[in-house]
Design goal:
- The structure is a single chain.
- By secondary structure, the protein is α/β, with parallel strands linked by helices.
- The protein has two domains: 2-249, Purple Acid Phosphatase, chain A, domain 2, CATH 3.60.21; 258-378, no CATH class.
- The protein has helices at 22-35, 37-44, 63-76, 99-104, 140-145, 179-187, 265-277, 296-312, 341-354, 359-380; strands at 2-6, 49-51, 80-82, 109-111, 116-121, 124-128, 155-161, 193-197, 203-204, 211-213, 231-237, 243-249, 254-261, 284-294, 315-318, 324-327.
- The strands form three sheets. It has a six-stranded mixed beta sheet.
- Helix 7 (265-277) runs parallel beside helix 8, helix 8 crosses helix 10 (359-380) and helix 9 (341-354) packs across helix 10.
- The longest helix is centred in the C-terminal third of the chain and has 22 residues, at 359-380.
- The termini are far apart.
Length: 381
């Protein structure tokens, strides 16, 4: 038996930093990743797809998002089993019980709306642990596995959502999945594979080779949070219940963090080269953590560099909490502007302020001097 394990589609997700056409393109990419599972399933011969929670970003969605999402699921063409997670729990406002969803849900899409075994076909079952609220007070997996007998001739796949205790720093959280109980169920043959969702990076849990987070098929956060997103798992379980898991990379977007020390124009040129060589700029978000000390001239060159690439990337910005740039006017830096009288006196005052101890005033003066240099360069060009 072969199937696809995926999770955390979070269809309808928006990223606050995406402006212009970047957000619609990002949303379309997330839907395309879903629809593209059909081609992957056909390529590898997968019989069905399990989605281990957080199908949708939340339960209050624009009808257009729901309709487009269902069309993407229809395009997969084989059975798709959806597990409600913490973003889209089966509460009173559940998207899965909405009139629009139930009316337009394709025949190949099945919601795992009750805990326990669901038959996929004779000899194959999914054991589901759906969320019914955003904050469960118990281990939903332990509840669904309690009393579950040896599967015998039936192959069973657990589909669940949430953090695992061995990976979570808050091990006293009541909703955490206890790995020991999960591995005990695997050992006694009550289940044969655990398809988990909630962690957006591809992650194997424990040493059994049978407990995995697939991660989100498209990146949702920067690389300091998501180290390995963009995957779907191809899972094989043979007649002896031996398990083989093969990750397939399907994502197209990247959220990248760059840490750079910039003290000279050479450093700025190196940053420019790094940004220039990054592929797929229209599908890449860049967050820059910059530290260093620059002259006003070099700071103006840096701003020009960032302005240029800000137009090319889906989004580019500095990471303020990790950016510390000092701007110190160099001696003689403003002597050849070709201005005199009142204008020259004003420039001298700005230079003095930029070197002063009043942080806010110095920052404003540095920005004014940088703008002055850029305007001067444009006039001379």
């Amino acid at each position: 038996m072969r199937f696809l394990h995926t999770a955390d589609w979070q269809l309808g997700m928006t990223r606050h930093f995406l402006a212009g056409d970047a957000q619609p393109r990002y949303s379309a990419a997330r839907r395309d990743a879903v629809a593209g599972l059909g081609a992957l399933a056909a390529e590898v011969g997968a019989e069905f797809v399990v989605v281990a929670g957080d199908v949708f970003e939340h339960n209050q969605l624009d009808p257009k998002v729901i309709g487009q999402s269902l069309e993407a699921m229809r395009a997969i063409g084989i059975p798709v089993y959806l597990l409600p997670g913490n973003h889209d729990p089966l509460d009173a406002s559940s998207v899965f019980t909405s009139t629009l969803f139930t009316r337009e849900c394709p025949d190949n899409v099945i919601v795992l709306d009750r805990p326990g075994p669901h038959q996929v076909k004779p000899g194959v079952e999914i054991v589901a642990a759906p969320w019914r609220s955003k904050a469960p007070t118990t281990d939903l997996v332990a509840e669904v596995l309690e009393g579950l007998e040896d599967a015998g001739a039936v192959t069973r796949v657990l589909v669940a959502h949430g953090g695992v205790d061995v990976l979570d720093p808050d091990r006293d959280k009541p909703s955490l999945i206890r790995l020991a109980g999960l591995e005990e169920a695997l050992t006694r043959g009550a289940i044969h594979y655990a398809a988990l969702g909630d962690k957006h990076s591809l992650t194997q849990v424990g040493d059994s080779g049978r407990v995995w987070y697939s991660g989100s098929p498209e990146v949702t956060n920067f690389d300091d949070v998501e180290s390995n997103p963009g995957h779907v798992l191809v899972v094989d379980i043979d007649e002896t219940n031996a398990v083989s898991v093969t990750p397939r990379h399907v994502g197209h977007w990247r959220f990248v963090t760059l840490h750079r020390q910039v003290d000279t124009n050479r450093d700025i040129a190196d940053l420019d080269m790094n940004l220039d060589q990054m592929p797929d700029k229209e599908r890449t978000v860049v967050r820059l953590a910059l530290t260093g000390s620059l002259t006003v001239t070099d700071r103006a060159a840096l701003d020009a560099c960032l302005d240029r690439y800000g137009r090319l990337f889906a989004h580019l910005r500095t990471w303020e909490r990790h950016t510390d740039l000092a701007v110190i006017p160099a001696d003689g830096e403003f002597t050849d502007l070709g201005v005199g009288g009142f204008a020259a006196a004003a420039v001298e005052e700005l230079v003095a302020t930029a070197r002063g101890d009043d942080t806010d005033s110095a920052t404003d003066a540095q920005a004014a001097l940088a703008l002055l240099l850029r305007l001067t360069d444009r006039r001379s060009a």
